[in-house]
Structure formats: C-alpha cells, structure tokens
Write a structure and sequence with these properties.
2 copies of one chain form a homodimer. By secondary structure, chain A is of the alpha/beta class. The first copy, chain A, is built from 11 helices and 14 strands. Chains A and B meet through helix 1, helix 2, helix 6, helix 8 and helix 9 of A and helix 1, helix 2, helix 6, helix 8 and helix 9 of B.
Amino acid sequence: MKTLTKEKLTIIGAAGMIGSNMAQTALMMGLSSEVCLYDPYEPGLKGVAAELFQSGFDAAHITYTSDIKEALTGAKYVVSSGGAARKAGMTREDLLKGNAGIAEELGKNIHSYCPNVNFVVVIFNPADITGLITLLYSGLKPSQVCTLAALDSTRLQSALAQHFNIRQNTVHDCRTYGGHGEQMAVFASTAKIGERPLLNLIRTSELTDQQWIDIKQHVIQGGKEIIELRGRSSFQSPAYLSIEMVRAAMGGDTFRWPAGTYVKNEQFDHIMMAMETKITKDGISYKVPTGTPAEMEELTHSYEHLCAMRDEVIAMGVMPEIDKWNTINPNL
Amino acid sequence: MKTLTKEKLTIIGAAGMIGSNMAQTALMMGLSSEVCLYDPYEPGLKGVAAELFQSGFDAAHITYTSDIKEALTGAKYVVSSGGAARKAGMTREDLLKGNAGIAEELGKNIHSYCPNVNFVVVIFNPADITGLITLLYSGLKPSQVCTLAALDSTRLQSALAQHFNIRQNTVHDCRTYGGHGEQMAVFASTAKIGERPLLNLIRTSELTDQQWIDIKQHVIQGGKEIIELRGRSSFQSPAYLSIEMVRAAMGGDTFRWPAGTYVKNEQFDHIMMAMETKITKDGISYKVPTGTPAEMEELTHSYEHLCAMRDEVIAMGVMPEIDKWNTINPNL
C-alpha cells in the first residue's frame, strides 16, 4: 500500500477512544508512512500501539511516545483529541479552563518542536476555543489550523434522511455554521432533499415547522443522544471525520463538510468557527456563507456566543487581550 | 466510492466494541453497499448506527435491527463477534457453555434465514469451538465458515520486530497454527527476519533459547497484556482482521494470515483450527503446515487440547456425538 505522504503524522491523545480510532483510521486510509502516537498515559498508549501492531498494518512505521518533544519533532501533520472530558461534578467553566490550558500548551509545543508543521486539526471541546488558543500560541497561519465542526452537518443530514425515510446519500449539502456547541446556526437554505430545496419543504405537510424545530434541536443535542444510547461519548464519528480533514490537507480526497477556521472579516473577527471551508494542500480557506436573514441572524448569535466564550478565556488569563494577539502570533 | 460487492453484509454484535469497529472498518474499506447491523441490545445498536450515520459514509445503505431474522434474511456475508465476554466470577466452563449456546443459535439462525450465505466469519471465544458449532448447525460447507486466528501470528510478528528492533514489515511469514488459545503451536520455521530464517537465529546471541521461549509465551498471553495496559480487551485488532477476512472472501485483497478452518484429514479430524489457509471468493481452503518435528508435536498437542474442549461441549449436550454430525450437516 502506497501512502498519501511520507511526512510524519502525529496523533495526540492516542490512548483515548477517539485518538485510538484516529490512529486506526489513518492507517487504514494509508495517509502516512510515518505515524507517531502520543499520549501522556503510557500504559494505555502501549496498549493502543499493540492493537495497531497486531492488526498487521505494514505500510506505516508506527511509533509511540509519552514525550511530547519526541512526538512533535519533525511532525508535518498533527491531529489532537487530547483534551480532558467533562467529569461528574465539573462545571462547564472547569472544563473550559482545563482544556484552554491544554490548548495553550499544545500551541506552545507546536511552536517549539514543529514550527514547520503543515496542518493541525484540533478537536477537543470546546473546539472553537481550543482551536483558537492553539492557533494563537503555535504561531501558525490561520490557514494551518482547523477544528472539527462537521459532526453537526452530518447529524443534520442523518436526521433529515430519517425524517423523510430516504437514503442518507440522497440528502445533499447539509450545513451548520458558527460554533460547534449549543449556539450553532443550522442552515436550511443549503440543503436539498433529492432534487428539492429543503426550504421549499419546511412548513408543508412533509416537514412542519415544529418538526423542523425538533430536527434542529436534535442536531444541536446530537452528542447527548449518543451518550444516552451508548453509555459513552461519540468517538467513531469525530475520529473518522477528523482524519478525513487530515487526508484533505495531505492532498487526498475532498473534505465534504464545513470545518472550524479562523475568521477575520468585517462581520466576524478574531474568532474560530465553522464557515463554508475548503481544505487542500495549501491549508484551509473559507467563505462566509449566505443564507436567509433568519439564518444569518442565527449565525450572528452563534458568533456572539463564541465571542463571549473567547472573552471568558481572556478574562481567565489564558489568552491576552485581542490587541496583543499579534505580539504572540504575527499572523493574526 | 464503489463497493466490492452489492451483496448484503450482516455484522452480528454490532453494539459492542469489536462489532462497532467491524462496522466502521467494513464501511471504510467499501466492502458492501448493503451493511446491516444486528445486536440484541437495541440502545447500544442505535448509538452505533448514529455514529456511522454521522460519519457521513455514503457508499453504503446502513440498516440496523434487533430482529435476527431481519438481520440475516438475504445476507451473503456474516461476521459475528456476538458472544458474551468472560465476567468476574465466571469460570472458563461457564463462558464455554454460554458461548457454545450462542454459536448453536447462530448456526441455526443462519440455516433458517440465510442458507444461501456465501461466507461466515466467527470470532467470539473460544473461536475454534464456536466456529465449529456454528458450522455444524448452519448446514454450510466447511469452506464457508472460518474463525479468527490471525491475531496470534501478528502478535508473533510484532514481538519479533520489537526484539530485533526492526520495522514490523521486515519480519515475514509469521505463523501460529492449531488453537487460538493457550495451546497454540507457535512456529519458528516459517518466519524470516529480513532475509534470514528465524530458525537460524534461535539459540544464538541474537535470540537465546530463553528469549524465544519468552516471545512464544508473550504471543500466547498477548490478549492478557492488552487488558492490563488498556483496561479492556483488545477490540481494534480482532475487528480489523476479521473484516480483512470478509474482504478476501468477497474477492478483495489477499488475507495474509492463517485462519481457523474445519479440518478433516488423517492427522486431524472433526475439528476447527488454524491451518495454512487461503480465503478467496470460493471460500476457505487449507494445507496442513509442515514444520520441525517439535513444531508438529506442538500442533498435535494443540489439536488434542481442542478435541478435549470439543468433547466437553459434546458432553454438555450442545453438539451430538461426532458420528451423528452428518445427520445435522451432511457436509461434515
């Protein structure tokens, strides 16, 4: 099996459920001939490495280490699921503070050990914020760091397919934009059910207003549903989709969903959020989506929600005031 | 993405860690455009299906059901990880009896609902025995049912690579035969370290007799090591390798490892165990391996161990006496 690249891919958080699935997925896709697994939890990391060795993957040289310097040195692609999960008794703020700190460290480590990295994918939550912090401290260009947002769009596609009782691949161009959290903007105007624009179907007997509201709610709450059903957070879909993003950045198949990207324009500024994006060998680029006035208003709400979270992290001292960002990263 | 076949693939035990990984692996490999997930545990099954829907796999029609009749009807390929795991306080016999009963039911269900199935892969433990029981009650030909044994050979490859500190893909033709349990026959005579036959290296300073004994022990105990390291049974490697077997049976890439197969010849009879096998569209075929006298003796020990387990299951009443087998399955 020929791999897409010979450049080193480092998977951070590889001992976890998402990270170990990322590793398997990357090996199955034949992304790189040099795959390095990192996790601070050494026994789990060894166990995951053993699983991969015992799968007989032979196109890649698989290494593992609990030394972040060794893991990142020479890395050209980095994907990180290495945040803490929310535990019982932890407030949302506790989680935010903890993972913001982890993102700061990740950014600084990238800056120190692999400043020549091509592309970084950050997926630990809240990904919009952890991605932003990582970008800031890494010193990378906005085109080099992206976050996972696609799950919301695939949830929309899946929910619409179930509602209309049709094959999922006949539901096209599902899109959510803005934050990957409780305040995302679920767009109807991009989507098509077969050949028919979704907008033409809302408020008809085929999809009542209430049904559409329920579907949007289901999309926003999608993660919770899997926890209830499976007794654990989703890990297969975030792992798989993240690795699809890495593949696109390596010049492989097109990534078909929105990703979180650093946004700087007249409407939205100094923020990371899902836009209409394209990931290629040159990195990630975006266009501001166009939607109905109501959709654009939702997007603005989502942006404001993210700004508030960003400002909370600034108040925590994890990031400096916005006007100082370019002293840390001149690309911002 | 074009799939390898349009014929229905049914994954049994899909709510579990192995089964859900099998499903993702099969979808990533693009095996079939018709993938059905079965598990008696409906919430978990729904959660796994949601994960797959939300991964955006769009080459396959993914369905799920907790009705075994619906799951198997029309199935041309079946892979089952759907046994019980050994739990605290359970004796080996408890597990054997429980999973033997599950295998009997699986065989009977295949016979009832998909007698025209092409190929069945059984991987729940003890796989040599559950595969044998499934074959018996399914009424299928020996060429149509196989079990997972490859993990032992990949463990050997991985252990040798680590010992010699070389890339795993430079260790060739690692083979274990016989049972997939504590009495397997770990062959040295097939393996090569680079260009050098392993046999020439044992009892030299490069690989002392004690080191080789330790490696064999490590291979036999491989599963336990992962439980200790990861806090759970291995699931990625058994899932991945099982799906590689299905792929080979669909006419895809060659399966490079031994598989468990029904054996009937002068030396070994009325048993399922790992031989030198080949899996093609015509099913599985085997050759009895040739090894050193000591290796062949180990293989005989392994066979005898399996015969004892088989006879234990006969004594339990799950299978009839051997001379009655062909009244249930004329192909045996």
